[in-house]
Amino acid sequence: MKDEKRTVMFARVEEWKKSGKTVQEFTSDLGVSKSSFKYWIRKKRDSMDGSKQFVELIPSVKPLNGFQKSSKANEAATQAQIEFTFPSGLTVKVYG
């Protein structure tokens, strides 16, 4: 019984992730308390491979080398020098 509930709730967590809804919207539609659902979100996250504590960051843009002319420097200041995209889809851009 316990494993069945876990399987069902983990599936609902995946469904929520794909839905694009907030936790409040999803739990309201589902008829589950927000706090209970957040518990299952944490349980699912904690059940994943615990050995992956860090995410490897690989720059997708090479850093600029040397000096640039002032017009190019202004252009470079508006473009990301380094960009990281995490597995969750979050993107972090570092500007020079």
Describe what this molecule looks like in 3D.
With 96 residues, the chain is mainly alpha-helical. It has two domains: 2-47; 54-96, no CATH class. It is built from four helices and two strands; from the N terminus they run H-H-H-H-E-E. Helix 1 (2-19) packs across helix 3. The protein is elongated and about 55 Å long. The N and C termini lie far apart (55 Å). The model has no long low-confidence stretch (mean pLDDT 77).
Q: Spell out the helices and strands N to C.
A: HHHHEE
| Percent of residues in helices | 40-55%
User: Outline, from the CA principal axes?
Assistant: elongated
Distance from first to last alpha carbon: 55 Å
Percent in strands: 5-15%
**Major sheet characteristics:** 2 strands, antiparallel
Number of helices: 4
Overall tally of domains: 2
Would you identify the regions where 5 or more consecutive residues have pLDDT less than 50?
none
Rg from Cα: 21 Å
The spatial strand order of the largest sheet comes to: 1-2
Question: What class would the helix/strand composition place it in?
Answer: mainly alpha
Mean pLDDT: 77
Task: Please report the total strand number as a whole number.
Answer: 2
